[in-house]
Amino acid sequence: MTATVNHTQAASPPEGLAPQHVQGFAHLAARLADNIGAVVLGKPQVVRLALTALFAQGHVLLEDVPGVGKTTLARAMAATIHGQWRRIQFTPDLLPADVSGVTIFNQATRGFEFHPGPVFANVVIADEINRASPKTQSALLEVMEERTVTVDGVRHPVPRPFLVVATQNPVEMDGTYRLPEAQLDRFLVKLSVGYPSEAVEIEVLRGATMRSPEALEAIADTNTIGQMIAMAQRVHIADPLYAYAVRLAAATRNHPQVRVGVSPRGVIALTRAACAYALIEGRGFVLPEDMKTLLEPVFAHRVLLTSDAQLRGVTAADVLNDAIEQVPVPLPNGQQATHQATAHQNGAPHQNGTAYQASAAPPGQYGTPAPRHQG
User: Fold this and answer.
1) Nearest Cα to 342, choosing from 296, 292, 299?
2) Most exposed: 24, 43, 82, 356, by fewest CB within 10 Å?
């Protein structure tokens, strides 16, 4: 697939994507998902969301009990991309320099040399990240946000594209350190693999010795992934959907059972993820259903509940469901959908999308960018 990126002036809005480029993106994304799904059986939506984070220049946090395939998913993503990848096994005695690198004095040259750590790769697998101390966990903060590592006052850029796929065990387990909110906010999505169905688990047992991430063939190189990331930045989002994302975040901040709601960074993450998810679905524009699908993976780990809510068993998913029910969905004609009309939309996205088709949307709404007048 060849992606063409137009280099325009900073003041000009991005050009829309050609249909053939959108379909080419969706086709290649499907090949990547199928390749990963060859070893991560029965979890197509988890794989799709992980690829969404990759194309949105985000990072993935996988939290679940041991043995359900978290590390396998991370390794399969690394093997699918023809680039550098490193794995860091986080332990209580791991030091920050073991992650970022260290400056060493070279006696032969009589100078200091920087020896990069395992974080200098295209895909970094941070296995059991919450088993390391908070000091070591914080070594990832800068590189996850700025794609650079500062050692002894010198900044060192990491390769592009750059993706951190971190796994962690539930905090209730022994020997774990809770990730601070500032680091949780650096992850675009937080996913749970979950237990497989009976049929899938039987299939896993049949081919347990044959399915390995090392046996996967790389589908795309880093240049191709970089082009796909650039395409995701050109997906059209109508102004009513920007407002919809902001109102969803505001609903979490004003919820009586929430101590800290979603920050503006979380809203940016939602829109970026929605652009990448729309392209994976074969569209060059975002629909409200894209944001609904991504709301829990993107927002849930950014919502901090009150102590009373935690005692009552309220979860972040409950808060987000309330937000979806309270915030009206903007329609393509600029009107607001009623709560009754949107009640059936809170589950899976529409299959036909009749209310949100590009052909039904006037210029400047969901389907097509507004035309620019030539001066």
Assistant:
1) 292
2) 82
Quick one: pLDDT at residue 171? 61
The percent of the chain in helix, strand and coil, each rounded to the nearest 5, is 45, 15, 40
DSSP summary character for residue 373: P
Kindly list the distances between the CA atom of residue 345 and the CA atoms of 150, 207, 328, in Å, as whole numbers in the listed order.
46, 38, 11
Structure confidence by residue, pLDDT tens digits, 190-230: 998 888 889 888 888 887 656 788 888 889 999 999 999 99
Please identify which residue in the block is written with the tokens 């497989």.
196
Cβ-count burial of 197 within 10 angstroms (0-12 exposed, 13-18 middle, 19+ buried)? exposed
Which domains, from first to last, does the chain contain? Answer: 15-221 (3.40.50.300), 235-369 (1.10.8.80)
Q: CA triplet 222, 224, 225: central angle to 5 degrees?
A: 65
Structure tokens at 199: 């049929």
User: pLDDT tens across 316-373, in order?
Assistant: 999 999 999 999 998 766 555 544 344 434 433 443 343 343 433 434 455 545 444 4
Q: Where are the alpha helices (DSSP H) in 38-94?
A: 44-55, 70-80
The end-to-end CA distance of the chain, in Å, is 35
Q: What is the pLDDT of residue 48?
A: 95
With residue 61 as reference, give the H or E element that holds it: strand 60-63
Closest CA to 191 of 74, 308, 282: 74
Angle in degrees, 0-180, between the axes of helices 44-55 and 222-232, rounded to the nearest 10: 80
Residue 157: phi, psi to the nearest 5?
Answer: -75, 145
Q: CB atoms < 10 A from the CB of 364, how many?
A: 15
C-beta neighbour count of 19 within 10 angstroms: 10
Beta carbons within 10 angstroms of residue 205's beta carbon? 9
Q: Mean pLDDT check: name the lowest of 21-35, 52-66, 134-148.
A: 134-148
The winner for highest mean pLDDT among 86-95, 130-139, 173-182 is 86-95
Segments of 193-239 assigned E as strands: 220-221
Q: What is 146-166 written as a DSSP string?
A: HSEEEETTEEEEPPSS-EEEE
Residue 154 scores a pLDDT above 50: yes
